[in-house]
Write a structure and sequence with these properties.
The structure is a homodimer of 141-residue chains. Helices cover 30% and strands 23% of the residues of chain A. A two-stranded antiparallel ribbon of chain A has the order 1-2. In chain A, strands 3-4 form a two-stranded antiparallel sheet. With 141 residues, the first copy, chain A, is α+β, with helices and mostly antiparallel strands. Chains A and B meet through β3, β4, α4, β5 and β6 of A and β3, β4, α4, β5 and β6 of B. Chain A binds a DNA duplex (25 and 25 nucleotides) through α1 and α3.
Chain lengths: 141, 141
Amino acid sequence: MKERQTRQLLAVYDVVSVARDHPSAEEVYRRVRRRFPRVSLGTVYRNLQKLAAQRRVRVVQLADRAACYDGMVEDHNHFLCERCGAVTDLVRREAAPPDCRTLERAGYVIGAHTLTIYGLCPKCRPRSVGGAGKAAERCRL
Amino acid sequence: MKERQTRQLLAVYDVVSVARDHPSAEEVYRRVRRRFPRVSLGTVYRNLQKLAAQRRVRVVQLADRAACYDGMVEDHNHFLCERCGAVTDLVRREAAPPDCRTLERAGYVIGAHTLTIYGLCPKCRPRSVGGAGKAAERCRL
DNA sequence: CTTTCTGCAAACTCTTTGCACTCGT
DNA sequence: ACGAGTGCAAAGAGTTTGCAGAAAG
């Protein structure tokens, strides 16, 4: 039950937290292997999952591509370049809504965007006190 | 080169545009098969892709799960219940920033949220006039 | 020493694709 | 009749998992 500090876990964490380029699991594997040539991809996946569960790394799942990992654990958004595939961290300023103007001024061309909120729906919330009864399939936000 | 209106394409579109529950490709397949028992999963995938390219359906890619399809093509956000997995469309009111209060009032428990913007980074934009030169790896937004 | 973790390889899920045939146009 | 689209089945990418042995505490 107790978590062990294996070299592999430390190496995986190190690679992700140092990386600024949102590496995929495969890429993390490649980098970890530079230090531990005998590490296995399965171990890298297991450790990435463990770190994500502890919120020590962040999983970034973008349209159809493989998941990539981000050492930036603070709350922030992402910009995905549809040509080169680069992922840019968009650090949020306070609670201000994202301002596309700022991005455009920095040279980005803005296309679509997706916001997903995770949580519990009214049906699933712990004690449904005050819950609005029927869960709406669509909701004005 | 010309697009054909096959029964399968029409059926796939029909299933997705009528559905309010964000079905996965597998689920769309199941439903299309009720009308065309000989349809293949490959065809469903091909037609979903075609429809998505034409913006007649929307692909919703949520953390690790299989992609699901949304007949709602207007710009909107999503709420994913982490317990039951239900996806709720969050219809946006004008350009107003998403207001979590409204959701909470409706009985939702808000957890994390992810905003991803798609587009072109400064390096990849067509004619890099006025581009800020080096692309930032992180950006204040 | 005990228990968790690892390496390996096989399995699994989701999605794409090659091919011969079908069916819209 | 032409060629885009189909069904089928196999391949592919990404990720997970069972197991025997390694190593952290």
